[in-house]
Design goal:
The protein has 266 residues and is an alpha/beta fold. It has a domain at 3-146 and 164-197 and 257-264: Rossmann fold. 43% of the residues lie in helices and 23% in strands. It contains eleven helices and seven strands. It has helices at residues 3-14, 18-22, 26-35, 53-59, 72-85, 121-130, 148-159, 174-181, 203-213, 215-223, 226-242; strands at residues 43-46, 64-69, 90-93, 106-112, 132-143, 186-200, 251-264. A seven-stranded mixed sheet has the order 3-2-1-4-5-7-6, sandwiched between helices. Helix 1 (3-14) packs across helix 10, helix 3 crosses helix 4 and helix 9 (203-213) crosses helix 10 (215-223). The longest helix is centred in the C-terminal third of the chain and has 17 residues, at 226-242. This is Methyltransferase domain-containing protein. Pfam families: Methyltransf_11. GO terms for molecular function: S-adenosylmethionine-dependent methyltransferase activity.
Length: 266
């Protein structure tokens, strides 16, 4: 990954306040770690770990965890969260394209909505497999195309192409993941679509959260003129509102993602 591309990725994900959005994905991390059967003493790597959702889930199961991300400020937050919970894991600023670990260093490699934003998906996928020992477990999550999370990424990329990162929706299909990992590289492959509910007091409140806290939207908004801002907000409101479930106070939006787990071939 070139220094320019790495700097752009840091800029996108350091913008806003990702923890306020990412904390709502804790259920996805807990489910992934449970399905990977993480056990005490397992050496676990969380790639693109952000503020630590998956690292924390693995640490609660007494694993030996390393949490990496390209944005050091997010890892600072991950460490603070661990301290509050009385947990511990190592953190290291690292590019998913060049993980600073020896071949076969980990029993489990996981990434929840993280590695999917790597600028070079093939290279990042190869790195995941390189640092995983033969017989080790791999686990990934990504928004599926057509789900609110996937459509939000498409919408943001359309308004701010320079802020788009990687090919995240490619990771959100089984064929896409198989193509990236290479057929035969992972066996006992399991895939399931799961849903995490995003709630907000209103559509306006949900929009404000993404505008202020979610890096890609935050940067797109900052670069648009007044007309562009109005158009982006209107499209977001129409799109997000179309997924709202129920008729009670506030909004509840089921956000569907793909979870893939497997074992690295020996």
């Amino acid at each position: 990954m070139t220094s320019t591309t790495a700097q752009r990725a840091r800029e996108v994900w350091a913008a806003g306040d990702y923890q306020r959005v990412g904390v709502r994905l804790v259920p996805a991390s807990e489910l992934l770690v449970a399905d990977l059967a993480v056990r005490p003493g397992d050496r676990v790597l969380d790639v693109g770990g952000g503020t630590g959702n998956t690292a924390l889930a693995a640490a609660r199961r007494d694993a030996d965890v390393v949490c990496t991300d390209i944005v050091p400020e997010l890892l600072d937050h991950a460490r603070r969260r661990a301290e509050v919970e009385g947990l511990a894991f190592d953190t290291e600023t690292a590019d998913a394209h060049e993980l600073p670990f020896a071949d076969g260093s980990f029993d489990v490699v996981a990434s929840t909505f993280g590695v999917v934003f790597a600028a070079d998906p093939e290279r990042a996928a190869a790195e995941l497999l390189r640092v995983l020992r033969p017989g080790g477990r791999l686990g990934l999550t990504a928004w599926i195309p057509g789900a609110p999370g996937g459509r939000l990424l498409e919408l943001t990329a359309r308004y701010d192409p320079d802020g788009a990162a990687g090919d995240p929706l490619r990771w959100g299909t089984v064929e896409g993941v198989l193509g990236l990992l290479g057929r035969g590289a992972v066996h006992q492959l399991r895939h399931v679509e799961r849903t995490v509910e995003f709630t907000a007091p209103s559509l306006a409140a949900q929009w404000q959260r993404y505008r202020d806290w979610f890096g890609p939207v935050h940067l797109a908004w900052s670069r648009l003129d007044a007309d562009g801002r109005r158009a982006l907000e209107a499209e977001f409101t129409d799109m997000w509102g179309s997924y709202t479930r129920g008729s009670g106070p506030g909004i509840v939006v089921p956000n569907t993602y793909l979870q893939v787990t497997g074992v690295r071939a020996g």
